[in-house]
Amino acid sequence: MFNLETLHHALIVSCQPEADEAFYNHRFVTGMAQAALLGGAKGLRLNGPETIRHVRMQVEAPVIGLWKRTYPKSEVYITPTLADAEEILAAGADILALDATSRPRPGGESLAQIVTALKVKDVCLMADISTLEEGKEAERLGFDCISTTLSGYTPYSRQQKEPDFQLLQALKQAVSLPVIMEGRIWTPEQAMVAQELGAYAVVVGSAITRPQLIARRFVARMADPFAEI
């Protein structure tokens, strides 16, 4: 199983352009990944088996793999099913990220069933959660690390523009697993705060790899110095 120690106190860069964005192709994603590693990042977070395969041919850094998929009658979209998870592993992911919220999964699968099936394969599992209770349950189920990825992206979790440092602190007190900080980190200062609060590693995505969002923040501030960005 992948040794998480290699990512301790590391910057992990999420390279996940959406389908309607200019950088949505494997060549651009690979370039983003290479640039992030040249800048000192130690790991990558990548979406989809084809993307993972293409980036894997060019870089050797650890990859957190996931597959964002939409299924009818389910709000779970980060690696929703066991079949999705197995494809991500086959593509070469070192760590497999799963939506570990309490929401119903497609096809009637339970999160516990998926985790049990994957642990037989000696897989390093990351729980993407949105609340403290989901983090506690992830530890009970046998995940290897927890990420704050989904805080603010479920209707019942804390809704705010800033990173959810409160959730990070609560998880640090309640679980023994490594807790990775992800979500709405826009500045190096925020990443530093996360590390000081005990984050095992920090994931940054949009602030590094989504140029249209970065440009939008500049434009908004230039138009209105008091605009919320």
Automatic annotation (TrEMBL):
Converts N-acetylmannosamine-6-phosphate (ManNAc-6-P) to N-acetylglucosamine-6-phosphate (GlcNAc-6-P). It comes from the Bacteria. Keywords: Carbohydrate metabolism, Isomerase. InterPro entries: Aldolase_TIM (IPR013785), NanE (IPR007260), RibuloseP-bd_barrel (IPR011060). The gene is nanE. Belongs to the NanE family. Gene3D superfamilies: Aldolase class I. One of its GO terms (molecular function) is N-acylglucosamine-6-phosphate 2-epimerase activity. Its EC number is 5.1.3.9. The lineage of its organism: Bacteria, Candidatus Blackallbacteria. NCBIfam families: PRK01130.1 (NF002231). Pfam families: NanE (PF04131). CDD domains: NanE. Pathway: Amino-sugar metabolism; N-acetylneuraminate degradation; D-fructose 6-phosphate from N-acetylneuraminate: step 3/5. GO terms for cellular component: cytosol. GO terms for biological process: carbohydrate metabolic process; N-acetylmannosamine catabolic process; N-acetylneuraminate catabolic process. This is Putative N-acetylmannosamine-6-phosphate 2-epimerase. It is an enzyme of class 5 (isomerase). It catalyses: an N-acyl-D-glucosamine 6-phosphate = an N-acyl-D-mannosamine 6-phosphate.
